C-alpha cells in the first residue's frame, strides 16, 4: 500500500506555511517532503497556468487524474522515504486557491486532515506581489499587478474556497491558523496543530522556528527590467514537475532559472523591507477584500476585525 500523507498544509500562500513546515519537520514523529509537491489542482488554469502548454501544435496540461498511474506513482514516491514515520504531511500553498483540489483530495485521501493558514488579506496580497517581483514573475508596479494578475486577489479570497473544503471534507478535518497568531505565540499555535493531527506536542525552539526571511529590491527599476528580460524563463520553471515535459531546452532553462535565484537576484535584493503601500491602495483593498470575505468571521467563529486592521468580513 502506498504511504500517503496524514495531513496537508494547503495554503494560503505567503501566510507562514513554509515556516510551519519548517517547525513541524523538527518533530521526531513528523516528516514532510522538503519541497512543495503541487499534486492536486494542477488542472486549474488560474492557479497553475504553468501546467497548461503547447505540445507542438496541440494544447496539453499536467494530468493528475487517478487513472494517470504514472503521476500517482510519482506522488506516492515523494512519501516512500518517510514510510516509517508515524505522521507524514505535505505542504502545497496552491490547494486552497484551486477550484478542483478539494474534490481530488477527498477522492484520494478520504481521511487526510487539512491545515490552512490565513493572513490579513491586504498584507498577504502585498507580500505575494513582492514574492513575484523577487522571483521574476512581476514586471510592473503593485497597482498594475492587481489588474494584471487576478490570482493576487484570489489568493486573499478565503471564504468561498474554505466553504468548499468544509462542505467536501467536513469541518472536523480542517484547521485554520492565522499568521498573526503564529507570530504572536508559536508554541501555542504549534500545540494546536500537533493536537489536530494527533501527534505528541513538541517544544518549539525559538532559534529554529522561522523560515523564509526575505530581502527586497534596492532598485525597483533595475529589478523590473531584469524581470522583463527573464520572465519567459520563469514561466517554464514547473514544466518538468513530477515527470512532466522534458527536453534539453527546458533543462537549460531550469539551470538558468536556478542561477538567476542564486547569483543574479541577490545583487538587487538588499533592502530589509518593501516600500509602504499607498494609502489609497490600502483603503481600496481593505474594502474590496473585506467584501469578498464577508462572512469569514462567522464561518471561523472569530471576530477577525480584532486581528486584521480595517477588516469588516
Describe what this molecule looks like in 3D.
The protein has 313 residues and is α/β, with parallel strands linked by helices. Helix content is 43%, strand content 11%. It is built from 13 helices and 9 strands. The chain has helices spanning 17-24, 69-77, 101-108, 121-134, 142-148, 151-154, 159-169, 179-184, 186-197, 220-234, 248-268, 279-292, 296-300; strands spanning 7-9, 30-31, 52-55, 58-61, 87-91, 113-118, 174-178, 216-217, 269-271. Strands 2-5-1-6-7 form a 5-stranded parallel sheet, sandwiched between helices. A two-stranded antiparallel ribbon has the order 3-4. Strand 3 (52-55) and strand 4 form a beta hairpin. Helix 10 runs antiparallel to helix 11 (248-268). The longest helix is centred in the last third of the chain and has 21 residues, at 248-268. The chain starts with 6 loop residues before the first strand and ends in a 13-residue tail after the last helix. The model has no long low-confidence stretch (mean pLDDT 85).
Amino acid at each position: 500500500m502506498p504511504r500517503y500523507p496524514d495531513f496537508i498544509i494547503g495554503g494560503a500562500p505567503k501566510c507562514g506555511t513554509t515556516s510551519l513546515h519548517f517547525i513541524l519537520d523538527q518533530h521526531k514523529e513528523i516528516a514532510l517532503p522538503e519541497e512543495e509537491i503541487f499534486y492536486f489542482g494542477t488542472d486549474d488554469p488560474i492557479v497553475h497556468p504553468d501546467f497548461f502548454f503547447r505540445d507542438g501544435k496541440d494544447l496539453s496540461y499536467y494530468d493528475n487524474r487517478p487513472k494517470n498511474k504514472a503521476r500517482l506513482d510519482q506522488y506516492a514516491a515523494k512519501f516512500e522515504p518517510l514510510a516509517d514515520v508515524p505522521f507524514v504531511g505535505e505542504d502545497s500553498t496552491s490547494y486552497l486557491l484551486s477550484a478542483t483540489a478539494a474534490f481530488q483530495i477527498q477522492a484520494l485521501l478520504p481521511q487526510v486532515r487539512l491545515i490552512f493558514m490565513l493572513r490579513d488579506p491586504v498584507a498577504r496580497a502585498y507580500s505575494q506581489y513582492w514574492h513575484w517581483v523577487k522571483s521574476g514573475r512581476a514586471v510592473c508596479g503593485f497597482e498594475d499587478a492587481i489588474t494584471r494578475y487576478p490570482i493576487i486577489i484570489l489568493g486573499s479570497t478565503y471564504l468561498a474556497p474554505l466553504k468548499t473544503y468544509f462542505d467536501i471534507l467536513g469541518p472536523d478535518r480542517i484547521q485554520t491558523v492565522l499568521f498573526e497568531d503564529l507570530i504572536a505565540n508559536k508554541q501555542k499555535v504549534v500545540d494546536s496543530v500537533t493536537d489536530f493531527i494527533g501527534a505528541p506536542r513538541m517544544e518549539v525552539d525559538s532559534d529554529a522556528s522561522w523560515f523564509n526571511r526575505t530581502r527586497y529590491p534596492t532598485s525597483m527599476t533595475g529589478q523590473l527590467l531584469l524581470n522583463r528580460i527573464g520572465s519567459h524563463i520563469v514561466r517554464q520553471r514547473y514544466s518538468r514537475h513530477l515527470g512532466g515535459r522534458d527536453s534539453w531546452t527546458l533543462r537549460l532553462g531550469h539551470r538558468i532559472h536556478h542561477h538567476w535565484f542564486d547569483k543574479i537576484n541577490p545583487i538587487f535584493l538588499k533592502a530589509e523591507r518593501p516600500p509602504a503601500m499607498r494609502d489609497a491602495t490600502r483603503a481600496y483593498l481593505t474594502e474590496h477584500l473585506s467584501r469578498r470575505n464577508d462572512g469569514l468571521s462567522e464561518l471561523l467563529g472569530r471576530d477577525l476585525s480584532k486581528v486584521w486592521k480595517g477588516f469588516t468580513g
